[in-house]
Design goal:
The protein is mainly α. It is built from 13 helices and 2 strands; from the N terminus they run H-E-E-H-H-H-H-H-H-H-H-H-H-H-H. The chain has a domain of 181 residues: MetI-like fold, CATH 1.10.3720. A two-stranded antiparallel sheet has the order 1-2. A hairpin with a 5-residue loop joins strand 1 and strand 2. It comes from Roseococcus suduntuyensis. InterPro entries: MetI-like (IPR000515), MetI-like_sf (IPR035906).
Length: 286
Amino acid sequence: MRLRALTPWLWLAPALLVLVPFFALPLGLLLRNSLGRDEPSGGVEPVFTLENYGSVLTDPFYATVFLNTAGMAAGVGLAALVVGFPYAYAVVRCSARWRGVLLWAVYTPLLVSVIVRVLGWIAITADGGLINAALLATGLSSRPLRILYEVEGMGVGMLHRYLPLMVLPLVNALQRVPWDLLRASSSLGAGPGEGILRIILPLSLPGAVIGFQLVFASVLSDYVLPTLMGTTRFRMLAPALYDEAVTNLATATAAAMAVCALLLVVLMLGLGNLAVRRLAPWARTL
């Protein structure tokens, strides 16, 4: 009986050995630094103060950074949902052979380095890139469009990078949908569009919420794309946090920004789970 009670903890032991030293301890160190005071040399004075949180939450610069990042994360999440749902629907409804091809197209970008993908998007969206070359050649534009190093170009790159995080949860959710309900609604007079809106979309809501949470949290912490494809006129959280810690040697302030970002992610996760419980109580039975 005692061995049976210890069995779950034995299974959890490998994960705990990784999470405790490489997640819990750094998180505690981050929280401790956020409550300290910055020293000119870049260190943290070990005093208890909330000055860093006060400056982060009241300074217009930090407020703009958080609003820009949250807006971009929400926008990319919604765009991924709009683009990813039809694709996931096609994956579930197509034949087994084509399903493998479509899923392969989703998994393959995950195997390519993000730097390589960003360089590819730079070649596509640059002033002399493929998009502008096609627009100029067809006469649709008389001059190159400014896409690279703009918010729009950065958003497209983020959508491409994080679209798989939306498609895969949607595919998993749609595979659990009893498709007999769609045929039953058709026999009762509902059209294909009405069946999708009133049956498929509500039943796939848990996958949509999970995908949105994954995309939102990933965009919130993205450093590479804002640095290589973004603009300093639209500051994002990760590059701003890096500048505070490395360039300005404000370690405590950077720690407070990181803690606020974690709290924002936790808030978003909580709201998403609450929305699923309230709007899709049937999700537990799928």
